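Risk register update: the risk that structure generation would not scale has been downgraded. Supporting records follow, first protein first.
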Amino acid sequence: SIGREGNHVAVFPEIRVSKRHATVSYCSGKYYIMDEGTMNGTFLNGTRLSLQKVVSERFELSHLDELRIGSTVLQLHIHANHDTCKWCEPGLNVPTPNKPVATTISEPPTLYKQSNKETNRLK
């Protein structure tokens, strides 16, 4: 699960992310995502998964899909077995057309503390 706080696999500590935001599941070799009825939504390739406060249906996730939760944008790399593509070889950061470029954060703890302070200020 994905959320702003609590015991989730992925935690994004920002106010636009709900405490319980989305659920990612795996079934028969495929990954799926479902919005848990959030106010600010979960976006897959720029499309909101459901209306505000309405739990979405499951949507299949594919290689190079773009997932946005709050201000975080993730480019998904879904491969069979241990295969990789030219876009996700270790240490390789190559821009793709119309896709966001990943950046490296040099000091995640500091950034996390700043984000956490901002979240607490907004509560």
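Supporting record for the second protein:
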Amino acid sequence: LLMGDTSFLSRDAVGPLPRFAGSSHPPHATRGDFVVGIDEAGRGPVLGPMVYGACVCPVHQMAALERMRFMDSKTLSEGRREELFQAVRTCEFLHWRVDAIPPEELSAKMLRRKKCNLNTISHEAAVSLIQNFLDLGYHITHAFVDTVGVAEKYRAY
């Protein structure tokens, strides 16, 4: 599901989040080298979905991205997170993807015979988002991931 509309992420939205969403990608958008940043929110089926967000930025725009002062979302105020969300939505050179893993899926993976813990689910979500950008034709040279669990598992990929 590709969506430029982000109303489903609004605090006032009703109903389940779509599993995958993202900004549109014009054909010229994938030219050059890119960095990707990934962060997550939510930690389990009791509290709702686990949402992973990824954003790609052309390497030649890194100085502009640094001026926006993105950080781990847990270190930012709600107001600052909203400001940065609007910046991502309106910035011409940033492209984004969201993977919202519903609580039912988290529970099912954690309770099946061959159990899958939240760290593994987190790793799989991050890798999946990076793979999605690669499949769209982005040449990712660096990844910045707010890791859950052992960081070496992410590096090994």
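Confidence is low (pLDDT under 50) at residues 1-6. On this basis the risk owner (M.S.) recommends closing the item.
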